[in-house]
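Render this sequence as a predicted structure.
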Amino acid sequence: MNDQGYAKPIRILHSLLALCMLVQLAVGELMDVPEVEDEHPAHVSMLIPSAFAHEGHHHGVAGAPVEETLGFEVHEVLGLVLAGLILIRVLLAFSSLPGASWGELLPWASARGRKQLFDEISAQMAGWKQGRLAPPEEGETLARTVHGLMILSALIMGVTGTILYFGWSTTAPQTEFIELVASTHEVVVGGLEGLLGAHVLAVILHQRQGHNILARIKPGA
């Protein structure tokens, strides 16, 4: 890490990803998805619940095209933008930029990283129960782990979203494969929302405790 925490390209990309993800999640929750009714729905694995965002009210009958809603079109376009940003972040993970490498994003992938993560959680657990967070420099491994999990979730979301972009039908019922991809997409979105919520809460608590953590990631810092 450098004095600013992360290299400037990482800080700029972080801000773009944060903005696009928040807008995308909001649009995804509010939009109606064009879907043709199927008299005999394809079987979907019981392990993955049916995609709730694809149960909107903008339905049609088989054989007749369904008009895409504005929200759905925005979701599609913004999803492709996010996929591009995530691809750039993945490529930067192979660079030597401070805060960019896979080793920093996925510290739990190594025995040393797992030990550091366990030690940090053990040392900070008592403070968490009282709403107190340790200074950022004492929780680097945990912070990197959260960032890494969000990147992995966004990567899976981007891959499944891209498949849906090219495979979602507005003229016929969805295939079993597309329904499975849609359900996986929704499950990952739910996980990412949880991670983002925890991340935002941690930032607020850090700021309130005078840690000025935003200075580490602001593009113009």
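Summary. The chain has six helices and two strands. Residues 152 and 165 are 20 Å apart (CA to CA).
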